[in-house]
Write a structure and sequence with these properties.
Elements: H1 36-39, H2 92-100, E1 105-108, H3 110-115, E2 127-130, H4 132-140, H5 147-163, H6 168-172, E3 175-176, E4 188-191, H7 209-223, E5 229-232, H8 236-244, E6 249-250, E7 268-270, H9 275-279, E8 284-290, E9 293-301, E10 313-316, E11 324-332, E12 335-340, H10 359-368, E13 375-380, H11 386-400, E14 406-411, H12 427-431, H13 436-447, H14 453-466, E15 468-470, E16 484-489, H15 496-503, E17 511-516, H16 532-540, E18 546-551, H17 558-566
Parallel strand pairs: 1-2, 1-5, 2-4, 5-6, 7-10, 13-17, 13-18, 14-15, 14-16, 16-17
Antiparallel strand pairs: 3-4, 8-9, 9-12, 10-11, 11-12
Helix pairs in contact: 10-11, 11-13, 15-16
């Protein structure tokens, strides 16, 4: 056991009467006053340090117990231990409820149910309470064809199935949430069956729905004083008002893939400098010819292998040595097989006139040009080349190698500013204002061809346009894409449910690309941790037919790079 901390403040001399009494039949060394942190510890102190400044008239024969100890150095409590940045702090009510083991009662706001229709079954053994105001708002939002309306209707059907064939007494006592087969939900569902009379402060308008829900939470706290009542809402202002009134309030965290997006899988691993010394023992190496390129394989064994994932990129760059870049192909215990990459930064390996300008772009092109990789996700800030690389790889495999027969380009139509309203024309004409990124990148790709002069470039542009189809996400449900190269741009604005709908459209021979920057999310109620792009990156990592790369360096211009850093 480590020695107790020595106080930083001068020790205070004790009178004889303040010394602890020794237990009968026990003897020991004199015990001296310790720091406030050590005295407050419930366990008995086994060792003690005797500062020179303390004079003990006679030996004390027992260690201090917490109930007998007196804090003599300072009346202030010790400072709390610092928590990691990604740790979610708990309220005082929640800290008190955790040791007691009593289940909590979560009061759900309407936006939680409309955000995640299955949120009723996400609170494990705890109970759910639905105010009448929540049910009224669900009824007001159920009309229409939007995702919010669809979710509201799904919640209404779920509530109807739960409350079906239940008498009044059973509803008052709570409905088992596991009734519909959701075994992970072990709590009960309670409805507001009577008027809550607990008044809120006079400054809050009574007729507003948010304030009515706050009144219900306040009344429940008075009715069940020994239980933790927590308001769960996606509305930040609602949570702020609740905390200002002294009511526990939390965000809905179940849809968060990661609490800290810095922990998101990047698809790239830097190897340590002693990698070959620690992993080269018993290494096997061979070459295979794939088409016109020879690929070298290495079978290695070592302690770093268990932390690798299939299709993850690894690199080792040391001054004076040739850079080593490879992709993990197989993992079995502590043995892995790595394959060297094709160097797309060389002019002879250019793709539709485009070469990789940095290491991450080379990794991305190796994924995009691999026909065995069916699903690719590219993350990166503005100007890292996500759309340009995807279009160049798509054109090369549609017009040259004929691997795919068409490029499908789509994106989420979420405006940055105010909406411009309805647009005339066909589906493609309606989508054309959203496809500025496509037009800009096609112009760059078309400039790389100098054959045939202006007439040749115009003919090439018409040919390219004939093989690219612009589609709207609103009409994707029920479709099946066969032998298509599908590019989903600005995918960070998609919810996990929308992402599932799009990816399941893939038929035989189809490759799907998801591009985006999770720092530029425009969809309400979506964060970096709950975005559909974050969701698929985390769920698909390690699958042998998918790959991911986070592009780090901007290559658009020095102005764009500097703006990304300072703005």
């Amino acid at each position: 056991m480590p020695l107790p901390k020595i106080p930083t403040k001068p020790a205070t001399l004790l009178s004889t009467k303040d010394f602890p009494k020794a237990a009968k039949g026990k003897t020991g060394k004199p015990t001296v006053k310790q720091s406030a942190e050590a005295v407050a510890t419930p366990a008995p102190v086994k060792t003690a340090v005797k500062p020179a400044a303390v004079v003990t008239p006679k030996p004390a024969t027992t260690a201090l117990k917490s109930k007998e100890a007196k804090v003599l150095l300072s009346d202030k409590p010790p400072p709390p231990a610092s928590k990691p940045a990604h740790t979610r702090l708990k309220s005082s009510a929640r800290r008190q409820a955790n040791p007691s083991g009593m289940t909590k009662l979560f009061v759900l706001d309407t936006n939680v149910l409309m955000h995640d229709p299955t949120s009723l079954f996400r609170f494990e053994e705890h109970d759910i309470y639905l105010p009448m105001s929540t049910l009224e708002e669900l009824d007001n939002h159920k009309r229409g064809m939007s995702d919010v309306a669809r979710n509201a209707r799904q919640v209404s059907r779920t509530l109807d199935s739960l409350a079906e064939s239940m008498d009044e007494d059973a509803i008052d006592n709570g409905i088992l949430l596991s009734k519909l087969g959701n075994k992970e939900a072990k709590g009960r569902l309670f409805f507001q069956t009577r008027l809550q009379t607990e008044a809120l402060p006079a400054g809050l308008p009574v007729g507003k729905t948010d304030n009515q829900i706050l009144g219900v939470v306040n009344a429940l706290g008075k009715e069940q004083p020994g239980r933790l009542i927590v308001l769960v809402s996606k509305d930040i202002n609602m949570r702020v008002k609740a905390r200002a009134l002294g009511l526990p309030a939390e965000d809905y965290f179940n849809d968060q893939v990661l609490e800290d997006t810095d922990l998101l899988y990047s698809g790239v691993m830097a190897l340590p400098g002693d990698f070959w010394e620690t992993h080269g023992k018993g290494m096997e190496s061979w070459q295979e010819n794939k088409g016109t390129y020879n690929h070298t394989y290495y079978r290695i064994t070592g302690p770093l292998v268990p932390s690798m994932l299939i299709n993850q990129f690894v690199y080792l760059e040391q001054p004076g040595d040739t850079p080593f870049q490879a992709q993990v192909r197989q993992i079995s215990g502590k043995t892995a097989v790595m394959e060297t990459l094709r160097d797309f930064s060389h002019v002879k390996n250019s793709i539709w006139g485009v070469n990789a300008r940095n290491r991450e772009q080379n990794f991305a092109l190796n994924l995009l040009m691999n026909p065995d990789c069916d699903f690719v996700t590219l993350l990166g800030q503005a100007g890292t080349g996500k759309t340009l690389l995807a279009l160049a790889a798509g054109l090369a495999q549609v017009l040259e190698s004929k691997t795919y027969n068409e490029i499908i380009f789509t994106r989420v139509t979420v405006p940055v500013g105010e909406d411009i309203g309805f647009l005339p024309g066909t589906e493609e004409e309606k989508m054309s204002p959203w496809m500025g990124a496509l037009d800009d990148n096609l112009e760059v790709l078309n400039k790389s061809s100098h054959e045939g002069g202006d007439w040749g470039r115009a003919a090439t542009q018409d040919l390219i346009r004939s093989r690219i189809k612009i589609k709207s996400l609103n009409f994707m449900r029920g479709r099946t894409f066969v032998d298509k190269f599908v590019i989903i741009d600005e995918a960070q604005n998609l919810t996990p449910k929308q992402m599932k709908t799009l990816i399941t459209r893939a038929g035989p021979g189809t490759k799907i690309l998801c591009l985006g920057n999770i720092a530029q999310i425009d969809t309400p109620y979506l964060t970096e941790g709950s975005s559909g792009l974050t969701y698929v990156v985390d769920r698909f990592k390690g699958w042998e037919h998918s790959g991911h790369v986070t592009l780090a360096r901007g290559e658009r211009s020095r102005l764009a790079d500097y703006a990304s850093e300072v703005l």
